[in-house]
Design goal:
The protein is built from 16 helices and ten strands. Strands 1-6-4-3-2-7-8-9 form an eight-stranded antiparallel beta barrel, surrounded by four helices. The model has no long low-confidence stretch (mean pLDDT 91). Pfam families: CHAD, CYTH.
Length: 509
């Protein structure tokens, strides 16, 4: 089994041709002036899964590719996607005919997943196909061997009910065959700058499932980062960063497809998660190594600010109805917000296609994948950082957090709605730090302790919604005394919740 490292960028037909011509000019090595020769292939791929998509659930892709007279069976794990860079395990086998031969899979773990899928959900069957022309060449770029594939074609559904549905494909794939992975980032950077290509973290298989099998959309939540007590603090930082970036990429794919209030709120959630990460791991990752990255993310955050504010307001009005607040006077306001949101969505999606955004995402991906912060640490301190275990570091961070909570939320402190709302960002960061390190401690104790603080956050969010609703109604000349009543009740409940939460023994003690 091999580990595949590739960078994928979306393109258009006219850009593909320009990329091809440019690669002809730069593809030969300095020691070889011979013109590079492109190989064109017609590739036909059939993807397989069980009736309820058990392979999809376990992030496994299974296909048979027809390449000329060859049939190639491939099994791929989801691996890790950093920006548009894919790193994943892959098992490939030549087979005699267009028929699955799972006994040839050479990775035991993948074989177990395939066998379990069939045992639990029935036989594997064709579900969709990708058919495309691939112009392929291997070039020498900065001393590394890079395979370039220019793909143009379609994804087609299999099945009588959806056979007419299709989706166009047009993308550039760069796969590292030999050499330093940094070369992929350099070449990707050049292609984005010259031809305005965009990083693409959605695989052909993902698009095929989305097109041909209407899986219900669900809200993906940020959850526990997978750490152990022996994980180094540096490795913990990497895992947290990948978690945050993965959440961002998941909802970027969704927001590119359609306007979605939830997707915007979750994008902002990912940004806050990563901002918390920078401060929590400041003792591990030198601040000066983060300066350019934080500047990049500030610009991205600025681009998201307006549409996120609209998403908040739409969400508050929607949630207020769940509490029985129905006002005909606010119907025009809802319509205005929806229209503005649609316009801002279009503008934001256009920004996501710009070199400015894609170069920033590629820069962060490069920094993370190549561990560029180590250059700022220096060799003398690198070994010490690598040996720094996360468990004592986590306890120290959590204890510092508790002291801050006691200082601001002690039962001796009297708080107004405005005080709570102003403290809400800090409370959200508190819950995120629990996600960073929660895996290191007893799960039951952690859940019970965390729930108390999650309930406090939920009630502060209710105060925030009530404040917005009250202001919006007053702007329309409407007052509802029920809002003040619920606010007063919520303040009493929060006082009791604070006392209870602070009386509990922390799970990290």
């Amino acid at each position: 089994m091999s580990i595949e490292v590739e960078l994928k960028l979306s393109a258009s037909t006219d850009k593909i041709q320009k990329v091809k011509q440019w690669l002809v000019e730069v593809g030969a090595s300095k020691d070889n002036t011979a013109a590079i020769e492109w190989e064109q292939k017609q590739l036909h791929n059939i993807y397989y899964d069980t009736k309820n998509h058990r392979l999809r659930e376990t992030d496994i892709g299974l296909r048979i590719r027809k390449d000329g007279d060859r049939y190639i069976q491939s099994v791929k794990s989801a691996g890790r996607v950093v920006g548009g860079l894919y790193q994943r395990n892959e098992s490939e086998s030549d087979i005699a005919e267009n028929k699955l031969q799972l006994e040839l899979v050479d990775e035991p773990y993948l074989m177990i997943l395939l066998e379990e899928a069939e045992e639990e959900d029935g036989p594997l069957a064709p579900i969709f196909a990708t058919n495309f022309t691939r112009d392929q060449v291997t070039i020498d770029y900065q001393g590394a061997e890079v395979e370039v594939a220019l793909d143009q074609g379609q994804i087609n559904c299999i099945g009588d009910d959806r056979v007419a549905e299709k989706l166009e494909l047009c993308e550039v794939e760069l796969e590292l065959k030999d050499g330093d992975a940094s070369v992929l980032f350099d070449l990707g950077n050049e292609l984005i700058e010259r031809f305005e290509l965009a990083l693409d973290s959605e695989s052909k298989a993902e698009r095929g499932y989305r097109l041909c099998h209407n899986a219900p959309e669900y809200t993906k939540r940020l959850n526990l980062v997978n750490l152990t007590s022996k994980t180094s603090a540096e490795a913990a930082f990497e895992s947290v960063a990948h978690k945050g970036l993965g959440h961002w990429q998941y909802y970027i794919k969704k927001i590119k497809r359609e306007p979605s209030v939830e997707a915007v709120l979750q994008l902002n959630r990912a940004l806050m998660f990563m901002q918390t990460m920078y401060s929590v791991f400041a003792a591990v990752i030198p601040r000066h190594s983060l300066l350019d990255l934080r500047r990049d993310w500030r610009e991205i955050t600025k681009k998201l600010t307006k549409i996120n504010a609209l998403a908040d307001e739409i969400n508050w009005l929607k949630n207020s109805k769940l509490y029985g607040f129905q006002y005909s006077e606010l119907t025009p306001e809802e319509s205005r917000l929806e229209q503005e949101f649609a316009a801002e969505h279009q503008e934001f999606v256009e920004y996501l296609q710009t070199p400015s955004y894609n170069l920033k995402l590629l820069r962060f991906s490069r920094w993370l994948y190549l561990k560029k912060w180590r250059e700022a640490i220096g060799e003398s301190n690198l070994e010490k950082i690598q040996k720094k275990e996360v468990f004592p570091y986590a306890r120290k961070q959590l204890q510092h957090l508790l002291r801050d909570l006691k200082r601001h939320l002690s039962d001796k402190v009297s708080l107004t709605s405005k005080d709570y709302i102003n403290y809400l960002p800090k409370m959200s960061r508190t819950l995120d730090i629990g996600l960073f390190f929660g895996c290191l401690f007893d799960d039951r104790a952690r859940r019970e302790y965390r729930q108390s603080w999650a309930d406090i956050v939920a009630n502060i969010q209710l105060l925030e919604q009530l404040a917005y609703l009250d202001k919006t109604l007053k702007d329309k000349g409407v007052e509802d005394p029920l809002i003040a009543e619920i606010e007063a009740e919520t303040l009493i409940v929060l006082q009791e919740m604070r006392e209870e939460a602070l009386s509990k023994n922390p799970y990290w003690n």
